[in-house]
Amino acid sequence: MGPDYQRPQTVATDDSSALGARYRDTAQHPHTAPVFDWWSSYNDPLLDQWVGQLLAENLDLRAAAERIVQARERVVIIGGEGWPSIGLGVDGSRSFAPEPFQPGARRYRTGINVGLGISWQADLFGKIRRSVETAQYQSLANEADYQALQHSLVAELVRLRASVAVSQRELAVQSDIVDSRQRTLDTVQRRYQLGVKNTSALGVYSAEENVASAQAQRVVLRRQLTENLLVLDTLLNQRPGTLAKVDTAFPLLPLAGAVAVDIPAALLDQRPDIRGNELRLMAANAQIGVALADLFPDLSLSLNHSFASDQWRGLFDNNNALGSLTGQITTRLFEGGRLRAQIRLRESELREQAAQYAKIVLNALAEVETALAQEHYLAEQVALLQRGTRAARKAETLAEQRYQQGIGALLVLLEAQRRRQNSERSLLAAQRASWRARVDLHLALGGDWINKA
């Protein structure tokens, strides 16, 4: 009883064109199955080890796994309502009473009763069946939630791995900048002490400020690196500070190559968060059947069979048998409109869930398009920043040489150093954004990353 489920129309089912067509050549990037273990494309054994540790040890995943167990047990509990309930009872008694006309004498009586009871509620209109369907869909939704959490945590781990590598690279670059500015300060102080022309205390103070500013920025980068390592420790379910104690150099991840994209409709089955939402939509649809079944009568049957005697011997003789078979039909004559209101409520909940489902699908398409656009434009940005950084390094080297030779101005050198620092930081920030965009793309495309079977 109740409507059969039909997948709602969404922008994904209405469009068969490729995702990100404006950013990618479909001849070079055909539609293929989603990539398994995509993080392994970075060829980083430590990252592979971390992913395995995350999937095995993360506490959020453990809690989500227990929610799956709980949901499966609810299916069993609700499904048990459709089976007969069988009970067995054994009781005995021993009583005495005074014997009349015989002072001090007693009369004893023994009672033994063994009974079997069976009761069953017939699912004539599908209330129990629809309730089981609801529980099954909710259980499957919990499994989809678990997979979505896996995806999210793995993506966060890869982002952190990239951030740690960038932070270490930023620290190395910043230390180089500090050394460069310290050399400049030493030169300015020496020239000032020797009374070289065109040197002044103002130049010394400017160079000192340049060094202090670079050193302060290095402290900020160390703090950020420590914070990222602490978050990694928590994600991997290990004591905070474990990674900070290990002096490990994390190389920059290579920029990933092309990734296959698919038509929008494929997202409906690939992304676990969309699957989970649709399963809850299916559960809401089944709940309408439960509400409709409440309008109809309930039929229950009960069978009781027992043996009663005053002694164990001969207890199960037919002469000691008692039994009854009872059938009961109950229906609701007046509920003040509650039952009809319950149906309308479930129908409204279904429409609400369908709207949420369509919105999630729309957001998913937007996430894919956004990630593809980010990759496209960030690739251009990184290429331009690499060219600019090379020029900034050459400009700083030339400005330092000219100043050392006494033919260049201090302010020109200080400005070249600032420009080089800004270029290095901008390049690393763009590279970090490129890695994050690739992670976002894999997360947006979904697919079964973990279980290949």
Shape descriptor: elongated
CATH architecture of the largest domain: Up-down Bundle
Radius of gyration: 37 Å
Determine and state the CATH class of the largest domain: Mainly Alpha
Total domain modules: 2
Fraction of residues in helix: 55-70%
The end-to-end distance, rounded to whole angstroms, is: 35 Å
CATH superfamily of the largest domain: Outer membrane efflux proteins (OEP)
**SS class:** alpha+beta
Structure description:
There is one protein chain. The chain is an alpha+beta fold and 453 residues long. It folds into two domains: 329 residues, Outer membrane efflux proteins (OEP), CATH 1.20.1600.10; 73 residues, Outer membrane efflux proteins (OEP) (Single Sheet), CATH 2.20.200.10. Helices cover 59% and strands 12% of the residues. The chain has a four-stranded antiparallel β-sheet, with no helix packed on it. A hairpin with a 7-residue loop joins strand 1 and strand 2. It is elongated. About 3% of the residues have low confidence.
What's this entry about, in short?
This protein is an alpha+beta fold and 453 residues long. Helices cover 59% and strands 12% of the residues.
Set down the secondary structure blueprint:
Layout: H1 45-57, H2 59-79, E1 85-98, E2 106-122, H3 127-193, H4 201-235, H5 242-245, H6 267-270, H7 272-293, E3 298-309, E4 321-330, H8 338-404, H9 410-445
Antiparallel strand pairs: 1-2, 2-3, 3-4
Helix pairs in contact: 1-3, 2-3, 3-4, 3-7, 3-9, 7-8, 8-9
